[in-house]
Design a protein that fits this description.
alpha/beta, Urease, subunit C, domain 1, seven-stranded mixed beta sheet, 16 helices, 16 strands, binds guanine, binds zinc ion
């Protein structure tokens, strides 16, 4: 028997399959909206007065005065940093990792602590309405088991993988394994958890990624082995995820240190199989449609072009860039390259779990870029970053990311009543006489004003999560 539910509310989504540059034209606003969900799939998204006959007598859930948005996609968040988003005493990236983050991640050695972290991680994701996520994992298999098991129990989507470190330095040793162990444990995780819920990556909520922490945490030998490993599992839909061009403190920052250590022309070369001195090929490329590179703040044009060409996506993390003093990703130049861009919280580099807070800070940092580079992001572009762009980054755009009929029904119900400041802004804010512009102004007010208290209900595949 099919189960049909009609959800009523003010709908915003990006219809079709636009690029970010086409987001404005794809923006769809339905003030008297109805989202019809049948067996977990969207069968109708439109005006509630024009419901299809099959939905006329269906169960109705009335969210009116509230808004229905596609579920948020967090394309870069660190599971073992769930309690470390307020870490003080680190400074910029490499010092912060050593002083604050490696010690925090080492706490997950304790299985009870790891279980607590897994529960908290799912709690925070549901509170924030992040229905899908790419999560940097813990190197400890019991912690990853806890994360996947709890995520399955709660009904969220997840791509994750143990963070691989094969180089000893500073406070990293508890997180480091030998290269053989790194490959063995990663393969073991893929076999255990990739599509574990349905047996088929096309329908699974749970999937696995190969995740070296960053180039500085592994050796050329590890790069070679991971290239071979990735090649052997690509056709199973396994992902690849890491950090790229985040901190460019002259001489001692992540970018300069990486280029000096590997003697490569670009940081991206290390992930592109060209990790030997002079950017000589040493193994297989790790780029592709199921690869997400976090940050990409300080890319050369050739790196952006190569990511665009290979279908690799960027997880844009402006809150983290503010917190760690990493600088600002050049918006116009990055968009112009054609690379897909999505949003990431980067908790605990970022101190917010909520994707709309990331979108709000994206707006602020890009309007503040100097001179001609400065840009006032369109509300539709912000929505793209937090929803459809994320689904594309996960190479699952055909499954979720908007409300096109046939998509799996991942959505959040935003109740402005939960957040008095948002409710007042929506009620009394000045709006244009032009209906189209007024709709964009309301969407902007929403994306800037949503807090966790505004996220009333969260659905994955039509099922309400709690
Ligand atoms: N680069 C390597 N590890 C990390 C991490 O944990 N967070 C961030 N923001 N960047 C990194
Ligand atoms: Zn990160």
């Amino acid at each position: 028997m099919t189960a049909t539910t009609v959800h009523l509310g003010h709908i915003y989504h990006l219809a079709g399959s636009p690029k970010i540059t086409e987001a404005d034209a794809a923006l769809t606003e339905i003030p008297n909206g109805a989202l019809v969900v049948e067996d977990g799939l969207v069968t109708y998204c439109g005006d509630r007065h024009a419901l299809p006959a099959t939905a006329q007598h269906a169960k109705v859930v009335d969210h009116r005065s509230g808004f229905l948005l596609p579920g948020f996609v967090d394309t870069h968040i660190h599971f073992p940093q769930v309690f470390a988003f307020d870490s003080y005493g680190g400074g910029q990236l490499l010092d912060w990792l050593d002083s604050c983050i490696y010690p925090a991640e080492a706490l997950l050695r304790d299985p009870e602590f790891a279980q607590r972290a897994a529960v908290e991680f799912c709690n925070r994701r549901i509170a924030a309405g992040s229905t899908a996520a790419m999560a940097f994992g813990s190197p400890f298999p019991h912690a990853q088991d806890a994360l996947f098991a709890e995520t399955r129990r709660r009904g969220l989507r997840l791509v994750s993988g143990r963070a691989i470190q094969t180089v000893n330095f500073g406070s990293a040793p508890p997180l480091v394994t030998s290269e053989e162990e790194a490959v063995r444990l990663t393969m073991q995780e893929i076999d255990k958890w990739h599509a574990a819920d349905t047996g088929d990556p096309k329908t699974a909520l749970l999937q696995v990624a190969i995740i070296p922490r960053f180039s500085l945490s592994i050796t050329v030998d590890t790069f070679k082995s991971l290239g071979q490993l990735y090649d052997s599992v690509r056709d199973r839909g396994v992902y690849f995820h890491s950090h790229l061009n985040e901190n460019n403190r002259p001489g001692t920052g992540e970018v300069d240190t990486t280029k000096a250590q590997f003697q490569v022309d670009t940081y991206l070369d290390t992930y592109d199989g060209k990790f030997l001195p002079g950017s000589k090929a040493g193994g297989e490329s790790l780029l592709g449609k199921r690869t997400i590179m976090a940050h990409a703040v300080h890319c050369q044009d050739v790196e952006l072009e190569r990511m665009a060409e290979t279908g690799t996506s960027i997880a844009h993390c402006p809150i983290s860039q503010l917190f760690l003093g990493s600088g600002t990703m050049p918006w116009k130049r990055t968009v112009a390259s054609g690379v897909n861009i999505a949003a990431g919280t980067d908790v605990g580099g970022g101190d917010e779990f909520l994707i709309p807070r990331v979108l709000g800070d994206a707006f602020k940092v890009h309007v503040s870029e100097p001179g001609e580079a400065g840009v006032s992001m369109r509300p539709a572009e912000m929505l793209f970053l937090g929803t459809l762009g994320g689904a594309r980054a996960l190479d699952q755009e055909e499954r979720f990311g908007n409300f096109d009929p046939g998509k799996e029904a991942d959505f959040v119900v935003i109740d402005p009543g939960g957040t008095p400041a948002l409710a007042s802004a929506l009620k009394y804010g000045v709006r244009s006489q032009d209906a189209g512009l007024a709709g964009q102004q309301t969407l902007f007010a929403l994306l800037m004003g949503i807090r966790e208290s505004s996220v009333a209900e969260v659905y994955v595949r039509g099922r309400r999560l709690s």
